[in-house]
Design goal:
By secondary structure, the protein is of the alpha/beta class. 37% of the residues lie in helices and 19% in strands. The structure holds glutamine (GLN).
Length: 604
């Protein structure tokens, strides 16, 4: 029976059906293809990277793709999660706080995603419970099947309608066998049944062990993991075997035998030097063809167009490999032990470095021990410094000392969000003479609260999703360094509660700090810089520019930092400045002050 006939026959029945099929307006069953990626054996196999690379292969063939991550936890979003445990909180343009995998997808597919691309069990349950309270289940008992699973399918179809994608890539969080992901797996089984043949491709990512004591690859854990998936009623169509070294034919055949998947669709996905190689690895092995064949899809572009799309990445990789110079960039922060907490910053540095043919080495700078006295010694081999985003009190004094050293020592410096706020405090204290300047996040009683709660934050209760979040336009002041980077306007993503208190702007500017970017409709300072005559690169932003850096479009704040670090590390470096400074003498016009009414109008 075709999927449409199945739906029609269910709808024709009286209200008392076992099926529950909420369907978004405009959705046509069987018209969208889905690729579902499951993890077996263990977590941490790089499901997001795998899934985004596979999606990229299809995108290069001219197909419109969109990803969705189905996250098992009950949180509504990632905003309240500790980056120390879970990695950074990624923020989308629409303000969604989500898993860092969404950053992987945005970078790989060069696409801005939205809340529709991120689904947690918390969101699903919330919808189900809200519907129950409004009588939406017509007297029925509300159950995991069909109501919770129905809502999961509804989310996938909503994304299909809104994105108009040819193929939706569904990443199921966790590992097959987790209680908290069981409803997602069940929903995928139902989806395949309802959408009809050739509409859904199940891909199992598994792991082949290679114990050192045995010196050979063993497939048993992979077999058992896939069996677990079969027990859920999901027959994989493609198996991807993660492993340290290429998976042998023998092992692949064994996995094929135990999982009803033909050996030609059991692929190796061994470790490789760079994530940018993975799409080529997948293509070389034939994954893309296997998916296209299963889903009965044809490329939308001719071969030269596909090759041109692929070459963009291979060229990026070639540049990454042919770097000629190196710089050390320090990053201060309290999550120094967890690289994932700074994943996007590391990526943005890589993008900027690759653009400048420069290898960026990251040096973690522990600010808990940092003082004016230890600054020079701690930062002696560092050519540029980033003071990244943070919350709370810890490490603030060290960061301020670090920024002071960077300002006085002409060390290229980028302050991000909290780092921007600390730069304002440092300047207020040490240049404007406001000894007791602080942020009210750190000291609510300070005499000069140069960083203060945003007015709209004063009325907010609760923590989840309540910050100033997402993409906002920024107007840039003519004649500034920021204007040379961005032109008159740019868009940046934000995640903060505090801002520069407008009462102190005139005083800070009179002492030489330039606020070169601000919100168009409110007096929220977004970018700061020092005159080029005073410092080669001292820049801060209230935003999180790392979130919008892409391999082929590196974010200018990071390009500027690495460029300035290069000039510090290699005094003979004579490449033309990316942002010419010949406007040094041009006076920077102060912007007209915003009226109190203007301050209040900014909402979304
Ligand atoms: N804690 C600061 C604020 O809420 C900075 C936030 C951040 O760095 N993301 O404004």
């Amino acid at each position: 029976m075709s999927s449409e006939r199945l739906f029609d026959s269910i709808r024709e029945q009286s209200g008392d059906t076992e099926f529950y099929l909420p369907m978004p307006a405009g959705y046509k069953p069987g018209s969208t293809k889905f690729v579902a990626v499951f993890g077996t054996v263990m977590s941490g196999l790089g499901k997001g990277i795998f899934s985004s690379s596979l999606a990229k292969c299809l995108q290069d063939k001219g197909l419109a793709v969109t990803p969705i991550k189905l996250e098992g936890y009950l949180n509504i979003d990632s905003g309240t999660l500790n980056p120390f445990r879970h990695g950074e909180v990624f923020v989308l343009d629409d303000g969604t706080e989500c898993d860092m995998d969404l950053g992987t997808y945005e970078r790989a597919l060069d696409q801005d995603l939205s809340r529709l691309n991120f689904c947690t069990s918390g969101q699903v349950y919330r919808r189900v419970l809200e519907r129950e309270r409004t009588g939406g289940y017509l007297g029925r008992d509300v159950q995991m099947i069909p109501h919770v699973t129905g809502e999961v399918k509804n989310r996938l179809r909503e994304l299909a309608v809104a994105s108009k994608a040819d193929v939706v890539f569904v990443e199921i969080g966790g590992t097959v066998g987790d209680v908290e992901n069981a409803h997602y797996i069940e929903a995928m089984r139902q989806l395949a049944f309802e959408e009809g043949q050739r509409s859904v491709c199940f891909v199992a990512l598994t792991y082949v062990l290679e114990p050192v004591i045995l010196g050979e690859q063993k497939s048993k854990a992979a077999q058992l993991g896939i069996r677990r998936l079969l027990e859920c009623g999901v027959q994989p169509h493609i198996i991807a075997c993660r492993a340290h070294t290429p998976v042998t034919r023998k092992v692949r055949e064994k996995i094929a035998l135990f999982s009803n998947v033909p050996p030609e669709r059991v692929f190796s996905m061994h470790d490789c030097e760079s994530v940018y190689l993975i799409p080529e690895l997948l293509r070389g092995a034939g994954y893309d063809k296997a998916v296209m064949d299963w889903l009965d899809l044809q490329p939308r572009v001719d071969e030269p167009t596909e090759r041109a799309a692929r070459e963009e990445w291979t060229e990026y990789l070639a540049r990454l490999r042919s770097v000629t110079r190196e710089v050390n960039i320090g990053i201060t922060g309290k999550y120094t032990a967890v690289r994932d907490a700074y994943a996007s910053i590391l990526k943005a540095l890589e993008h900027a470095g690759t653009g400048l043919l420069c290898k960026v080495h990251v040096r973690w700078v522990d600010t808990s021990e940092f003082t004016d006295e230890t600054a020079a010694e701690t930062l002696k081999d560092i050519h540029g410094i980033i003071v990244p985003g943070a919350f709370g009190v810890r490490g603030a004094a060290g960061k301020i000392a670090c920024l002071k050293h960077a300002r006085l020592d002409q060390l290229p410096c980028l302050g991000i969000c909290y780092g921007f706020q600390m730069a304002v405090i440092e300047f207020a204290r040490n240049v404007c003479g406001m000894q007791d300047a602080d942020s009210t996040e750190i000291d609510n009683e300070c005499r000069f609260p140069v960083i203060n709660l945003l007015p709209e934050q004063k009325e907010i209760e609760g923590l989840g999703g309540t910050m100033r979040l997402g993409g906002y336009d920024v107007v840039v002041r003519p004649g500034t360094l920021a204007a040379r980077m961005f032109g008159p306007r740019t868009r940046l993503r934000f995640r903060h509660r505090y801002e520069v208190d407008p009462r102190y702007i005139a005083q800070l500017e009179a002492a030489g700090m330039i606020f070169s970017g601000k919100s168009p409709r409110a007096e929220i300072m977004n970018i700061l810089e020092l005159q080029p005559a005073l410092h080669p690169y001292y820049v801060g932003t209230q935003a999180h520019p790392e979130l919008t850096s892409r391999p082929l479009a590196p974010q200018p704040f990071f390009v500027g930092l690495v460029d300035a670090a290069l000039r510090r590390a290699y005094p003979e470096y004579q490449e033309p400045l990316l942002y010419p400074r010949e406007l040094d003498d041009a006076p920077v016009e102060p912007p007209p002050p915003a009226t109190p009414q203007e301050r209040r109008v900014e909402t979304v």
